[in-house]
Amino acid sequence: MAITDNEVIATRNDAEMMSRPHLWQTRALPLKRPRHDGQLPETAVLLRPEDGQPLQLIENDTLFGPLGDTKLCLFQRVDQIVAAGWMVD
Description:
Elements: H1 5-11, H2 14-19, E1 28-33, E2 42-47, E3 55-60, E4 70-75, H3 78-83, E5 87-88
Antiparallel strand pairs: 1-2, 1-5, 2-3, 3-4
């Protein structure tokens, strides 16, 4: 049985939310990834996907880091993003 948009929002299902850009409030979905050293989480944004293009995730080293401290990561599937430890912020 398919999960409805309301269920995705209510359950905070990260993979489903990443898969449904029509639910995002902006063109980029904020993500976070916990650090194992207890520091503030890593932050990133997932850009609204374009047909046939890889998913683009822009990592920022720190929550308030300068824009120059970014890294572009490409993924083929949302489950790869979740497996890398990213969750919707």
